[in-house]
Amino acid sequence: MPRLHLGSQLGVLFIAGSITSLMVTTLHIEHEILQFGRAELDVSPRWVTVSCGMGAVVIGGCYPLADRYFSSQPHVQISLSTLIRQLIIFVGLILASVKFPFENNMEMAWTLAFIALLVWWIGDRSKIGLAISLMHMLGGTFFVQSLALLGFYHYTDADFAGVRSWLPALIFAGSVACGNLARILSLDRSPLDVRRTSHVM
Known about the structure:
Layout: H1 6-30, E1 34-36, H2 46-70, E2 76-77, H3 80-99, H4 105-123, H5 127-149, E3 153-155, H6 167-186, E4 196-197
Parallel strand pairs: 2-4
Antiparallel strand pairs: 1-3
Helix pairs in contact: 1-2, 1-6, 2-5, 2-6, 3-4, 3-6, 4-6, 5-6
């Protein structure tokens, strides 16, 4: 099965990022975790959805490129079943951020951080993948904090420079899942390829 055309790969990443953003933001608005300027707003604003879609394209593209230029085994195969397991845990992480009755934000932050590392452990376990995900976590958290401090939106009960302290765990897990989706989309499945199969639990 030949790999998708570059435009199709970018399109899939954009749609995946947009849908994830729509789900996360809408849930956070409904549970009064996140508030925008308009009090009647009950879904994710369009600019947030588009921005996250573009972010998914950039984030996802980093993983295949890093594998190619910085890994001794540049063709990383992530099985579809592994990606599905990662996505299930990631969705569970999102739901935990709004559903579970934690006593405080820090307790939730440590719990979600453990689950986020589990997402990386299940489908990646590479040093490159960990490094990229950590960089995206730091950059993404700073970006969200900056917009919050500039007044684009407001996190209720914020305890980490304008956002909630568990937000970095969501960004980290989302980065891992997005990167592995990009790896699957960019993988040439010719039997002549040299591949490394990811460890799975």
